Amino acid sequence: MSMFNQQPPQKLEGATKQALETGRTRLLMTGAIFLLAFTVIGARLADLTVFQGGAEPKLSAAQSAATPRNSWPTTRADIVDRNGNLLATSLVTASAYANPRQILDPKDAAAKLMTVLPDLSLAELQTKLTGNRSFVWIRRHLTPKQQYEVNRLGIPGVYFQRDERRVYPQGPLAAHVVGFTGVDNDGLAGVERSFDEVLKGGGRGLALSIDLRIQHVLRQEIMAGMKRVNAIGGSGMVIDVHTGEMLGMVSLPDFDPHNPTGLDPKTLFNRNTLGVYEQGSMFKLFTAALALDSGSANMNSSFDASKPIKISRFTISDFQGKNRVLTLPEVLVYSSNIGAAKMALQAGTDTQKKYLAGFGLLRKPSFELPEVGAPMVPAQWKEINTMTIGFGHGIAVSPLQMASGIVAIANGGVMRPVTLLKRAPGEAPEGARVISQRTALEVQKLMRLVVTDGSGKNANAPGYLVGGKTGTAEKVNEHGGYKRRAVLSSFVSAFPMTDPRYVVLVAIDEPQPIKENFNYITAGWVTTPVVGRIIPRIAPILGVSPIDADDAAVKARMFVNYSAPKGPTRASLE
Amino acid sequence: MIGRTTFLWLLLAALAGYALFQVKYQVVSLEEELARLNAATLREQNQIHVLEAEWSYLNQPQRLEELNERFVHLKPINPAQYGTVASLPARPERLDVQPGTRLPGTDGMIARMAPPRRPQIPGVTPTAPTIPAPAAGYSTAAAPAIPAVPVIPVSVAPMSAVR
């Protein structure tokens, strides 16, 4: 420093000057590069501190904003019912795995592990730990206690991995709707499968249209009804007729979604959606609807049911028939096969096909479950088919389709897709009109008449103006013929009939004759009492207030030109 | 002077170094705090999640029903238990008539209605209720005198008498 200050600058000549010039240039270049570098660093520093100063708070905020309800970063989203009750959620667990290459003494390690996890197989465990692989699962989803104990064994080469387990707090209550996942949390059935991608995306819980309380009532009453008649199965649905939301859907026997494998496959079978059955006399409602709407018949039309119809090798006869001419309401009240066959024939095959297609009965329905069955429709639709389909035989549809069609009748004639997802209020889709409002009202009156005067009497819950139609269909055996005394007894209903809001369909599979039912296995004895107990229990939950059936205005609205027979009758209640 | 300048620079450098280390350690400790809080939050959130699952499990309708049968004995609403506003009796024209008195043309309905309560405050002499002079034919026998000891009048007897 002192050198520069004390010595005056000297004039340099030649080579020395050249060298200095070179040095100065280099210094300048280096300086420029350094300046550039520091500028970049400075800019970056300013960027980090001033402009991105809140990086960490932002990170945690983003974490909670992305998953508001379910902030724990589990990867699979919850499934909730319409009121927000958890149906399926993911809990964090620990899974034990081993790296066999690091295990010194597989025999000893296996023996030690067996002391903590006694339900493992010793031989299997030894083989696993002996291999030359670097990863084998020992056990997925340990309890905290098991994890602690395995950890305490201190076996080198045994590790834990954070894992996630699907938990169904409601157990089997909505098993067929929610479905289940496999060990790697892939949806294998139900909503878990059909919305697998959505659920894997995490985020907000998926809200179903199901109401747990209604689901519970439905399941409990169907179970009791099945037990009463020693049935092999049962199913039931409750649908909001205006929005098409499925409020309850039960298929019995059901299963525990935590342990769906290794069970009887029959329990995994969803009778409501996957099973297709001949629906029997319930179809007469569609026959009446199409006959009335097409104009081929009116409420005063009559059909000769005095003798069975013989067509080719078939005979269509009535179960405990009246053997006389019946009016249209009487065909429904007495559930006359002959009358319904003639009504269908009078409307014609093309009309029948057109309307049944409109009610969504001829095609596989679109529904938010993977387990949806396609209907069985005759390949050649001859006159005989038209007649048998008139009373619900020779065509097999799922209870879901049956109920969807009745929903259209109950809501005034508009067909809307039935859904398992919760809809916002007033968000119901437009829908397609199948029958006129007037026809719908007439069929609704007929449904009410069946309950007040016909086979639906046992479903007549006081105050809720239940209307419906029974159906008892003989089941098809393995050889394509009908099984004797093996029937599916169903009842489809709507309430309150002055302005229907909900449709309830219940089916009991293979009821056995019991003394209390006078050995009848028909729906009027087996299924209608179940519906008669379900409706008074769910109506208060659904906010349906009771209506006085004897009120003059109600009577006028439900009036059908029909004269009830005199004297006491123990109706066959088919 | 040079020494002073140098000293000043050295001092500044030392101070800057000290400040830098101070800030650095502060940041490290804040980061630790943040990580700790984040971990704690996650732990809490996990616990909430487990509790939510448990809450849902404990709210199984089946279980609630069993608890109800054991402790509360609630029953589904019977249609007969519903009432509508329209089915309520009309508000009587005169609230000053004692319960139990029969008014012509009201078929006794008014007798079932409790009189408007006049809470009496101890120590304060209540003013006489402004009962207008009863029209001829109205029974005023049941009208109680204002008691000396202030009590809130409970009108049970006339009601049961009507039944």
Query: What portion of the residues of chain A fall into strands of 2 or more residues?
Result: 15-25%
End-to-end Cα distance of chain A, whole Å, is 118 Å
Separation of termini of chain B? Answer: 116 Å
| Radius of gyration computed on alpha carbons of chain A | 36 Å
Total number of helices of chain A: 21
Encode the helix/strand succession of chain B as letters. HHH
Largest interface: A-B, 32 and 27 residues
Shape of chain A: elongated
Low-confidence stretches of chain A: 58-72, 567-572
Structural class of chain B: mainly alpha
The whole-angstrom Rg of chain B is 40 Å
Number of strands of chain B: 0
- Percent range for helical residues of chain B? 40-55%
Oligomeric nature of the chains:
heterodimer
Structural class of chain A: alpha+beta
Number of helices of chain B: 3
Strand content of chain B: under 5%
Query: Could you estimate the helical fraction of the residues of chain A in percent?
Result: 25-40%
Overall pLDDT of chain B: 69
